[in-house]
Every structure is written in C-alpha cells, then in structure tokens.
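Worked example 2:
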Amino acid sequence: MAGGVGAARFLRGLVRVVPPEEIIVIGNTGDDMWWHGLYIAPDLDTVTYWLAGVADESRGWGIRGDTFTTQAAFGHLTDRSWFQLGDRDLARHLYRTGRLAAGVLPMSDARIETRLKTDAGDLHFQEYFVRERWRPAVREIYWTGLDEASPAPGIAEALAAARLVLIAPSNPSISIGPILRVPGMRSLLRAAREKTVAVSPLIGGRAVKGPTVELLRAEGVRPNALGVAERYQELATGFVLDTEDAALAPPIAALGYRIAVRPTMLDTVDSARDVAATAVDLLREPAAA
C-alpha cells in the first residue's frame, strides 16, 4: 500500500530486492481531483514517475526537465492556476482522462476525496497542500464517496495471493488512511496480517517532508513511530523504524510486532534498497514474544 513521495522512494529500493513483475501497488486516490476538465492522480503519478526514473527528485513531483508553457498560459486565463502541471505531465493527464472508462483506479473505482476542515475553511487536500502550502491549522480530516466505495477489482485476489504485503513509509493520515477506509479493505488486510510489514515514515518524531506530524496530531495520534505502530497494529506483524527511534522499539515490540531498527532515510537508491530488504527479511525473523 502506497502513496506519495515516501512510497515512491521506498519502491525504487523494493524493485531492486523483489522482481518488479511480482509487485502490485495499491495506491491512494483520495488526493485525486478534476482540474480544468482533466482527471489528476498525484499519488499514482508520483509513484509511476519515480519507478520509471523520470521523476524530478529535487521537487518530489512531476517530470525531470519538464517545461511549463501551458501552465504559464493558464496563469493568464484564470486565477485557478495554483496547481502546477508540466507539459509532459499534462499529456499524461489528457491521455488518462480519455481512457477513464476503460481504466481501474487502484484502491477503488469510486470517486473518493480527502478533505480537511481547517481554519481557512473546508479544503480539498490539494487545496490545503499545494495552494495553501499546508499552513492552515487542521481540525478534522474526512472523506467523501466512501459510502459507495469498495476495493477495486483485483485487490482481494492480489492480497490473498501475496507472499508479502508492505505498508510503505507514506503519510498514515492522507496516503495510507484513505486506502484503509475503503469499505472491505481492512478485513482483507487483517486476513493478510501475518505476512504484512509496515515501515515508519517518521524519523525522530519528524517527517522527512510534508505535514505528516501535523495531520497525525489532528487525528489524535501520537506523532512518532509508536503512534504509527499503534495505528497499524491489527494489520501488520512486522515494523521497521529508524535508528533515531530505537528507544521506542521495546514498546512497539510489546504490541506484538517483529522489529527491525535501521536508518530509514530514503535519500539514495542504495538506502531505499537496504530498507526494502530489511522489510522483506523481517518476515523470516521469529515473532515478538
């Protein structure tokens, strides 16, 4: 299960440990939106670009070396130009929008939106994250479209057949959270608990990038590796945390996890591969007492 830059960095290491053809990514679509008539899927595209080796790694989104001619034209035509799309990125959205009827959204076919109640009003996640640069205080996170949702075709079969299920070091609130809230998804994952490993997205109680700490606090979750472990307790039996959080290993193990403590900064391909290998090998370790 994956979403965003944290997952993308992790996955570029995982494909060097597990054959790529054996990996199925269940991606977050709660951040998706319609933008000037185009269907935008930020988390899915970020993962795709990083795995394809074309991502702009310095920005964390978009395509390396992309131009922004169309974006500049939008700026002259409308005040709704805060969401940045490069020209090659735009081509992907045009192509996808024309093929939606034939496609399957990774976590669900239903249209699900992640929304936040903030001191700047009720915002779509992209409005909060991109337009407002995640400055407003968040009071509540909620989702629309869940009542009509179910896991996308193929997810149940993939989870049942998987030798290993990994919860990537993505934001637990708005990347993994929407996936888990799809009706029926948690029961599928509970059935796969004995073969599931989660990787903490926090290092020393800090996010590498983005509002992970702020959003966990908004949900009443302690913003550290222990809080993340508590959140995934019924879904995973393995947990990888950073060396800065070694002091939290005993209380996390007390939750019933198999524990691995490693440097988890995914800033290079080698470090991402090492973390992925640790997560895969963890299932071979004896279960926590």
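The first helix runs from residue 4 to 14. The domain at 4-25+149-282 is CATH 3.40.50.10680 (Rossmann fold).
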